[in-house]
Write a structure and sequence with these properties.
- With 306 residues, this protein is an alpha/beta fold.
- The protein is built from nine helices and ten strands.
- It has a single domain, classed as TIM Barrel, CATH 3.20.20.
- It is 37% helix and 14% strand.
- The strands form two sheets. It has an eight-stranded parallel beta barrel.
- Helix 4 packs across helix 5.
């Protein structure tokens, strides 16, 4: 697995790439704008070119843009759905400009219209977006949900339903968030439980559909449906729950992005610690090479996706 993290872009897009390498990341996820805004300032072509060049120069294996929070492609409200689709199209354009491999998004919430109606609405939204951007090269990834409220995607079958309705395996895929899986009731902390999870992923989605992971421990109990991230090994999942993921050859060429808590006073030091913990779990990695020490300055703290 290509281990990485979600970093902020307050210091500049290319700076996020360099910061990623300082903490030993092999992959990078960012927001392309504020996650609390419907639209953001245009990305200057020069800044996008610098970002793409930095990715190559620093040797990152994968990059992803995480969609902002406000859009809801499952909304039953016509105005909100139209606005969400427009915002999503903008995110696709921005991700393409940056040369990102993936655009990751939360499928949305049905807000009382029902799961099946919500699934159809998401599929219709994605068909519209793909038709509007046929030249796009970014792969759109649905992220599984913790299952709180009327959110869609806590069941693998729901993600599979959207993928089947759109039927564009060349453009779509899935991101699996470990905290969300655990909160939704998937217990993969021991070898048997991990085996059951992967068997279900393969049967329902197809293992090849999984194009990224969010590697987060969980503050809350199994099946809580609460999306509360914790640092690796400090939560309810524990380090053994991640050992299986980082040693599974099926995910050798799959990015895994941290979205774990940070401490502003230590910049990205907690990310560096989490990455070191994950590397130490790899078979034969009893003495992993340390990451470069991050700079001790005020963090341009990302608002990590929830």
């Amino acid at each position: 697995m290509w281990l990485g993290a979600h970093l902020g872009i307050a210091g500049g897009l290319a700076d996020a790439v360099r910061e990623a390498r300082k903490i030993g990341a092999e992959s990078l996820q960012i927001f392309s704008k504020s996650p609390q805004m419907w639209s953001g300032p245009p990305i200057a072509p020069a800044a996008a070119e610098e970002f793409r060049a930095a990715v190559v120069a620093e040797g990152l294996r994968a990059t992803a843009v995480h969609h902002a929070y406000l859009a809801n492609l499952a909304s039953p409200k016509a105005f909100m759905l139209k606005r969400s689709r427009a915002a999503f199209l903008d995110e696709v354009r921005r991700a393409d400009l940056l040369g990102a491999d993936a655009l990751i998004f939360h499928p949305g919430a049905h807000l009382g219209s029902g799961v099946e109606t919500g699934l159809r609405t998401i599929a219709e939204s994605l068909r519209f977006i793909l038709a509007e951007r046929p030249e796009s090269r970014v792969r759109i990834l649905l992220e599984n949900a913790a299952g709180q409220g009327t959110t869609i995607g806590s069941k693998l079958e729901e993600l599979a339903s959207v993928l089947a309705q759109v039927d564009r395996p060349d453009r779509l895929g899935v991101t699996l968030d470990t905290c969300h899986l655990f909160a939704a009731g998937f217990d993969f902390r021991d070898e048997a439980g991990y085996g059951r999870l992967v068997d279900q992923v393969d049967r329902v989605l197809g293992a090849g559909t999984v194009r990224a992971f969010h590697l987060n421990d969980a503050k809350e109990a199994l099946g809580s449906h609460l999306d509360r991230h914790e640092n690796i090994g400090k939560g309810q999942i524990g380090t053994e729950g991640f050992r299986h993921f980082v040693n599974d050859p099926r995910w050798d060429a799959t990015p895994g992005y941290l979205e774990t808590p940070l401490d502003d006073r230590e910049h990205y030091a907690r990310y560096a610690e989490d990455l070191a913990t994950l590397r130490s779990l790899r078979t034969g990695a009893s003495n992993p090479a340390p990451a470069r020490k991050p700079a001790r300055r005020a963090a341009s703290r990302p608002t990590t996706p929830k």
